[in-house]
């Protein structure tokens, strides 16, 4: 019997007013792959070791009060992609933080705030 626990990963579950639109946004804008899609119920996208799940929600205020953070490598390239797509949050451009990360944020079509971050020691 194991006496310790190792936390392995976390999977954000974001509110979505339109599951198909949410899945398409992450696939088309950010290069995720669609794993599962049931309109009006649940959706999953995946990029490398990161999965995002979406649950059907009828209240936009819930999505607009929700967010997640995703650690990445190569944040400058991702930022350039997001700038070109016009999806960078106007108040969250790429910047250094006091907690030693380089990060920026986007809003998905439902208002979920998704922040991408990279440790400063890892930034090129």
Features:
single chain, 124 residues, alpha/beta, 2,3-Dihydroxybiphenyl 1,2-Dioxygenase, domain 1, 4-stranded mixed beta sheet, 3 helices, 23% helix, Bleomycin-R, Bleomycin resistance protein, Glyas_Bleomycin-R_OHBP_Dase, antibiotic resistance, VOC_core
Could you describe the 3D structure shown?
This protein has helices at 19-30, 60-64, 75-85, and strands spanning 13-16, 33-38, 42-47, 50-56, 67-71, 95-96, 101-107, 113-119. It has 124 residues and is of the alpha/beta class. It has one domain: 2,3-Dihydroxybiphenyl 1,2-Dioxygenase, domain 1 (Roll), CATH 3.10.180. A four-stranded mixed sheet has the order 1-4-3-2. The protein has a four-stranded mixed sheet with strand order 5-8-7-6, covered by helices on one side. The model has no long low-confidence stretch (mean pLDDT 94).
Task: Itemize the secondary structure elements and their pairings.
Elements: E1 13-16, H1 19-30, E2 33-38, E3 42-47, E4 50-56, H2 60-64, E5 67-71, H3 75-85, E6 95-96, E7 101-107, E8 113-119
Parallel strand pairs: 1-4, 5-8
Antiparallel strand pairs: 2-3, 3-4, 6-7, 7-8
SSE-based structural type: alpha/beta
Order of SSEs: EHEEEHEHEEE
Please report the total strand number as a whole number: 8
> Count of helical segments?
3
User: What's the CATH architecture name?
Assistant: Roll
How are the strands ordered across the major sheet?
A: 1-4-3-2
How would you state the average pLDDT, rounded?
94
Family: Belongs to the bleomycin resistance protein family.
Domain VOC: 6-119
InterPro entries: Bleomycin-R (IPR000335), Glyas_Bleomycin-R_OHBP_Dase (IPR029068), Glyas_Fos-R_dOase_dom (IPR004360), VOC_core (IPR037523)
Keywords: Antibiotic resistance
